[in-house]
Model the fold of this input.
Amino acid sequence: MMRILSVIGALFLGGAFLTSCTTSGRVSTFVVLPDTQTYLEQCPEVFESQVDWLVANRKKIDAVFQVGDLTQDNSPVEWAYMQKAFYRISQAGIPYSVVWGNHDIGSKPGKFSDVHNTAMANKYFPLSDYMQKNYWGGSADGKTLDNYYINFRSGDTDWMVLNLEFGPSDEALQWADSIVGIHPDKLVILNTHAYLYCDSTLHDGKDWWRPQGYGIGKELGRTVNDGAGIWKKLLLRHRNVIAVFCGHVLKSGVGTLVSIGKEGNKVYQMLANYQRGVEGSRLGGEGYLRIVTFNRKTREIDVKTYSTWNKAYHPSEHHNFKFREVDFDKYLR
Done:
């Protein structure tokens, strides 16, 4: 924890690390921040390089989505650190969303989703602050950021980003279903913590680290959904859903799945996690983030994985790829 305290001040410093992400015309460029948890206890300066890079490239980025496990131990020191980091991103004028992972929920620091308690997360990322943002959409319970959505326009497209906590309940999915249903004119992305497994299938009951295996999955009267449940109860039903971003899972830490909804729309689903414990991980994740470009002109979704620490792209094709022949117009007909 002392590593964090020693560098909090440094979050307000830093240079520029430029690379070739651009946004203009019919192009939308988003950055996905995978699980940040092990940077905090191991090498926060690597995470700082991500924040520095985001701020330096603010005019080239349409939005930033963090996929959960912001913290390792759900402690006040860690949350204060993350609050300052995202304040910098906000002050740079970049729309962003965060979601709660299993390490961000619990009865006390160091208890990972033993009960559904998000008080610490919502103390440092309060709904009242988020409601002041010009891209604010709404919250499921009107009190917290446990489940919420944001709206913005980029690349000649109106976007909605649904942000759902680790193991969302049936009630949360019903709320999300209603929100997507009344906004057929918006292209929808789901940002959540646990959804895909590292074998590129939906996270379900046979997999490690499924939400039902934690304490929240055993609480009386509370439902918990994994990736399979989220797909069946929400995403499958809507033509305007185009993509899913998630993290959480170890082993290779990556996965990709393209599924077809009831209306014939393809949904491009991506898992990316580089934290300590993932195969080949070093320096808490080595500063890797995802740059995802939706290009309506070329009909492509381009995915690149870039290390702001090494200032280089990931060498593997599993981390840099394209989805081609994407029929963007089909989603909003």
